[in-house]
Amino acid sequence: MIEKVLYRLYERHLLTEVLQRPAPRHLGLIQDGHRRYALRAGLSNQEGYRHGAAKAKQVLTWCAELKIPMVSLWWLSTENLAREPDEVAAILSVIEEKVSEWLQEGLTERLGIRIRPIGKLELLPPPPSRCCSMPRGPREAITASW
Length: 146
Description:
The protein is an alpha/beta fold. It contains six helices and four strands.
């Protein structure tokens, strides 16, 4: 309970600081630490990735509110592709699940964003490449890098 109150006070302090300065034109967010978080929280790695995606959605909402025109999410590195096949499949399934969910629930329209996958997409196995070819929303604001 006290942790939530302190976190809200911290968020309010950060927002005050951010609003006193010009908004950045581009924010880069490296998604890292989801396995470590999952281990500490007693969750599966896949659930850790889902928690990370939920936080990314929250950050995207904040960026839209602050009128930050471009956000790059680094969700997957080529080093991640060297992990065990089940681990890579878990990461890719969460990426596909969340991108599809964001499009279907209207997040892209509501925030006025477009998802544009970039990177070495040819290294991805076939199923996740579906989310790389879906309609991506009204305007560019997210660059999802894998």
